[in-house]
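Need a sequence for this fold. Nothing fancy.
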């Protein structure tokens, strides 16, 4: 009986190890963006700018979209500098508020395709984060995040998708966050918009697969960007302590992983072990690319649920501790 149990256990562990090796070290055939048109929203800073630089190194024509012309101009020069072949590649920018009005976005992107060529890859990186408890979150902040994070992404995809479908090729990337795997103290508005992106990504992945258009949902952890510095200003203590359980990654690391996952046609693009664990735990009814990926998720899910429970308990304890400390300070005043 013990021999049988032992063998089963060893076989189980062996299968998981083999699947992980295949998942992490197997290089699938990647698509190429050489001579293709890549559009990056939020491309003037942070993860977006890093993605545009990587695409430039891969020989693509690039358009970055953001609002601030000065930042766009500076980013454009930086991206031009990274081009593989400066004589044939083009880098342009478009100053546009993508979340304000659908007709404007549609017109701008249609015109852009006329001057810069059909869009092969759309990378939605524009996003913003403002934290605060729900009672402290202004309706303005909520509106802003819905417009930039959700509507901006939805509008840009809606504006390009028909031509991608017609040409039977294309790649769409949505940048969500690890905060679309779990709700976190202080993120009621932010998480709402980032969870929404996951629903959007899963839906269009199903719509577009028959048309050879792939969809990738990037779920980066806290990333060291100008946006993150602004987010820090509004962060409640609880949120900061909970976020501290994971580190801060560099935007070029996130961009590099995002770009490779998009070219490989992977649905989830996560960074690091924590991202992998969250994606495996929360994969539920999400699309999968290979049987290997599916089996790995199926084997890990139950176990990870228990590991996750310990994290949830520790987060609840952080929230309680903060509350108690505040009460104590109030009394001693
Ligand atoms: C990229 O730009 C070059 C130079 O303007 C042009 O010849 C080429 O057709 C463009 N590629 C696409 C896909 O638009
Ligand atoms: C699918 O798209 C890729 C490029 O993204 C292209 O190389 C391939 O030929 C396309 N396949 C079909 C069946 O159209």
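Here you go.
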């Amino acid at each position: 009986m013990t021999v049988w149990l032992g063998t089963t256990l060893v076989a189980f562990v062996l299968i998981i190890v083999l699947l992980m090796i295949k998942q992490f070290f197997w290089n699938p055939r990647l698509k190429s963006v050489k001579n293709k048109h890549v559009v990056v929203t939020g491309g003037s800073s942070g993860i977006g700018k890093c993605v545009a630089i990587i695409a430039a190194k891969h020989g693509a024509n690039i358009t970055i979209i953001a609002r601030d012309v000065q930042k766009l101009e500076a980013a454009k020069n930086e991206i031009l500098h990274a081009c593989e072949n400066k004589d044939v590649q083009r880098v342009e920018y478009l100053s546009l508020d993508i979340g304000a009005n659908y007709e404007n976005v549609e017109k701008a992107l249609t015109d852009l395709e006329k001057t810069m060529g059909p869009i092969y890859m759309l990378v939605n990186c524009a996003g913003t984060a403002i934290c605060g408890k729900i009672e402290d979150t202004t309706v303005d902040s909520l509106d802003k995040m819905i417009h930039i994070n959700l509507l901006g992404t939805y509008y840009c995809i809606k504006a390009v998708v028909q031509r991608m479908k017609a040409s039977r090729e294309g790649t769409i990337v949505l940048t969500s966050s690890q905060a679309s795997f779990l709700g976190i103290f202080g993120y009621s508005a932010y998480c709402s918009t980032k969870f929404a992106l996951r629903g959007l990504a899963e839906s269009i992945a199903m719509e577009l697969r028959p048309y050879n258009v792939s969809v990738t949902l990037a779920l980066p952890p806290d990333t060291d960007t100008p946006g993150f510095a602004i987010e820090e200003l509004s962060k409640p203590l609880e949120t900061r302590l909970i976020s501290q359980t994971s580190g801060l990654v560099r935007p070029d690391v996130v961009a590099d992983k995002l770009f490779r996952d998009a070219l490989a046609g992977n649905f989830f693009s996560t960074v690091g072990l924590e991202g992998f664990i969250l994606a495996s735990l929360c994969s539920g009814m999400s699309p999968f690319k290979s049987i290997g990926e599916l089996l790995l998720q199926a084997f890990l899910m139950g176990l990870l649920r228990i590991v996750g429970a310990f994290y949830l308990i520790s987060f609840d304890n952080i929230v309680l501790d903060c509350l108690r400390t505040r009460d104590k300070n109030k009394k001693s005043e």
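For context: The pocket of 2-acetamido-2-deoxy-beta-D-glucopyranose (ligand 2) is lined by residues 31, 168-169, 212 (CB under 6 Å).
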